[in-house]
Amino acid sequence: MDSQLTLVDANELPDRQAYIELVFDRDSLTNAKLLVKGGSRTVYSIKTTGRSMSRTEIYKPQSTERAEQTGGVPGELVLAAVIDRNEVLPDTISFTGLQKMKTRKWLQDNVFTVTHPDTGEVRYVWKPTSVRELVLYAEENPFVPVAWYRTAKRTSPVAAAGDVIEPPSLSIQPEEISHGRQVD
User: Fold this and answer.
1) How many beta carbons lie within 10 A of that of residue 118, not counting itself?
2) Is 33 within 8 Å of 24 (Cβ atoms)?
3) H and E: helices and strands count for the chain
4) What is the pLDDT of residues 20-51, one digit of tens each?
5) Phi, psi of 115 (to 5 degrees)
């Protein structure tokens, strides 16, 4: 019996449609702005500071409702989360309004749990699907991604920072799709 060997390009990624696609303004997970693809409005901002890049702060736009409660400005970037990388003590993560926790407790074996007001606790799993992609699934529906992160695509593996063909991106699906519910 003849067999056929198919070579797969590691840079080839599944063609997926996303509800929203955010692109990084630079090829960095520690200092970047995330913009809606094709737009100029900052949706998230990531800033890392400290002598050894030990503190990362993630900012998001303030909602109109929250701005009215606090006297802030709708759309103004406000702190959403902080990651502290420590040399002696365990690394921690804290989300605004919630208690600080150890990052290894929050993200165990590429799994973390989020409590949603409507659906209760949902466990999420991160899985690498290729050299350039990391996908997030709800544990209850491991075939439909909730979100995926794709690294920058370059003209060659050793290309300079200016030789990016496709910037890093984070694509997000509506929760109804990723949890198998109908979207109106």
Assistant:
1) 5
2) yes
3) 3, 14
4) 899 999 888 899 999 999 888 889 999 999 87
5) -95, 115
